[in-house]
Amino acid sequence: MEMGQSSGSKPSGDGVVWAKLIPMDSSYSEIELKLNETVICSEVTSLEKQAWCKITRGMDLVSATIQNTSNGCFSEWLRRSQEKHSSVKCPECRAVVQFVGKNPFLHNIEENILEADLSLKRPSEDIKLIDSYASIKSPLVLNSGKRSKRKRAHSPSDEASRWELPCRQCGTEFGGFQCNQSTVHLQCHACGGMMPLRTNISIPQHCIGCDRAFCAAYWHAQGVNGSDLHPICSPETFKPITERTITRIPSLAHEKNRHEQEITERCITKMGRSLQDVVSDWILKLDNREIDRTRMPLNHAEMITARTRCCSECYDKIVSFLLYWFRVTMPKHCLPAEGSQREDCWYGYACRTQHHNEEHARKRNHVCRPTRGSQM
Question: Is residue 238 part of a domain?
Fold first, then answer.
């Protein structure tokens, strides 16, 4: 948890630090919030910031509030606002909303509460109904109504110049579509570029496995190329499962147990096949619904087919999931000698000891179902 520290006095310039986030864990650096910033971050790395909430300043410019609304409620508010107004305003304070994203802090609190008392969990029917109202799957950047101060490579119209131009379709028509002042934008997880949120098209804008936004498929369909001002990610970052190739076993496979990964690799080699051949066979089994998807570590697992577009990270998770089934269904006599002579671990794939005890990870088979513990 992070605690906020106000500067306690009215700042005098846009670049002045008016508040700090001081992590309880000293291994994380302090985060400074300047006057002209509207978003603070729960994590800062050398490459990117992970935004998680919107800050609304008080009239004295030194106080702030974090506004939280459920996904379903705000999705409905967003839809109605776009139908009636040129900008989306906060349902609480009526300020113009510039950014909408998940609040992992509250999500963690929810998980802790349910872990302590499962009786508080809503029925699955209620959760399904609530999720049907929630249309926000990744952070949204909404137009602020302010004039952009950035230099642009093209000359937008007078109407377009009255608001920020985050993407190529703001101020310029491509594929029969042009953004307007009420258009909501998605930020691509891969390249950081923007694209308009369009729910009435068949082109996927989110990875079905993680719900993160990726712009490769959308901009390719629009016939638009990237630029320094408007980056577009590589098509390789977001493509159908059947069009992907793989030459190495993902580091996530077999719960990151390198001994199990080596056995799987040797098993495939012994069969005279390639990793790609094995994965292709099991993707076909997945498509034919011959595999139990209960443990698939992806969102919307039941909706995934061989033609589904996914990001590279989710593809590694799919391959790791399929390699588990490849191994668990294989007779022991088909395994290399060092793999076939081991006893199964009582806790199977759910064993935690395999992550910190090298000898245990090597001596016991962990590509098996648990016979003890909560995972049974």
Answer: no
Predicted TM-score of the model (pTM) = 0.63
Q: How confident is the model at residue 332 (pLDDT cuts 50, 70, 90)?
A: confident
- CA-to-CA distance for 50 and 361, rounded, in angstroms? 34
Residue 13, number of CB atoms within 10 A of its CB: 9
Q: What is the CA radius of gyration of the chain?
A: 25
Q: Establish if 290 belongs to a structural domain.
A: yes
On whether the CB atoms of residues 142 and 100 are closer than 8 A, the answer is: yes
| Co-location of 225 and 294 in the same domain | no
Task: Say whether both 115 and 184 belong to one domain.
Answer: yes
| Domain carrying residue 91 | 70-233
Task: Tell which residue, 216, 203, 272, has the closest CA to residue 244.
Answer: 216
CA 151 to chain CA mean position, Å = 31
SS3 state of residue 213: strand
Paired strand residues for 66:
55
Query: pLDDT tens for residues 311-329?
Result: 999 999 999 999 999 999 9
Last residue of a domain, one of 188, 212, 233: 233
Does the pLDDT of residue 243 top 90, yes or no?
yes
Q: How far apart are CA 106 and CA 119, in angstroms?
A: 19
Count of domains for the chain: 3
More confident residue, 206 or 109: 206
Confidence check: pLDDT of 120 > 60: yes
Could you give the CA distance from residue 30 to residue 216 in angstroms, rounded to a whole number? 34
